[in-house]
Amino acid sequence: MAAALHLGLLSKDRIPNETELLAVPYFDKTTNADFGSIRFMGKDEYNNEVYVLGKKNMGDRYSRLLQGVAKILGEEEQLLVVNCMNRVNTFMKLGGFSSRKMGLVSLGRPVVVRGSRKAFLELVNLVEITRLRALQMV
Questions:
Q1: What is the pLDDT of residues 38-58, one digit of tens each?
Q2: What b-and-e string marks burial along 68-97, b requiring 16 or more CB atoms within 10 Å of the CB?
Q3: What are phi and psi of 42, to 5 degrees?
Q4: Tens digit of each residue's pLDDT (9 = 90 or more) over 48-105
Q5: Which residues face 120 on adjacent strands?
Q6: CA distances (Å), 24 to each of 20, 62, 99, 109, in order?
Q7: Backbone phi and psi for residue 21, each to the nearest 5 degrees, phi listed first
C-alpha cells in the first residue's frame, strides 16, 4: 500500500474501499516464493523506480544487505529503503496469515482489508516522511 500511495495508485485523501485495495498490485496475493523477491511497482513523478520486497522475518538485516550491495556498486545515494512493518497492525497480520498462508482467502481477505483501511493514515504519513527524506537526498 505504501508503494501504491507513493506512485499515486491510491489517493492519500481518503481511505480506499475494498475494490481499490484489491486493485493494488500484489495486495493479498503474495506467496512464500515471493518473500525475498524484489518486485517493481512503477516509477514516480520524478522517474524514481519504486520496488517492494517481502522480507518476512529478515527485518532490518535484509535492508542492511541491500544497502551494502548498493554501496559496493557505488549507488548508495540511489537507494532509499523504507521499512513499513511498524505500520502493519494485528488485523493485517492475522488476515494475511489466514488468506495467504492458510489459503482461507474468504476468511482472511476481509480481515486484511479491514486492517489495511485502519492503518491507511499511518501509511500515508510514512509515505510523506519518505518523500521528504528523498528530497533531502537530492
A1: 899 999 988 989 999 887 777
A2: eebeeeeeeeeeeebebeebbeebbebbbe
A3: 150, -175
A4: 899 998 877 777 888 888 999 999 999 988 899 998 988 999 999 999 889 988 889 9
A5: none
A6: 7, 24, 16, 14
A7: -65, -45
Contact yes or no for 87/121 (Cβ under 8 A): no
Give the CA radius of gyration of the chain.
15
Q: What is the DSSP string of 60-114?
A: HHHHHHHHHHHHHTT-GGG------GGG--HHHHHHHIIIIIS--HHHHHHHHHH
35 secondary structure, DSSP code: B
List the grid coordinates of 51: 520496488
Half-sphere exposure of 102 (CA within 13 A, CB side): 13
Query: CA 82 → CA 60, 87, 95, 108, 130, distances in Å?
Result: 10, 11, 23, 26, 7
Contact (Cβ atoms closer than 8 angstroms) between residue 126 and residue 84: yes
Boundaries of every domain in the chain: 2-137
Element (H, E) at 51: strand 49-53
13: cell is: 485523501
| Cell numbers placing 106 | 474468504
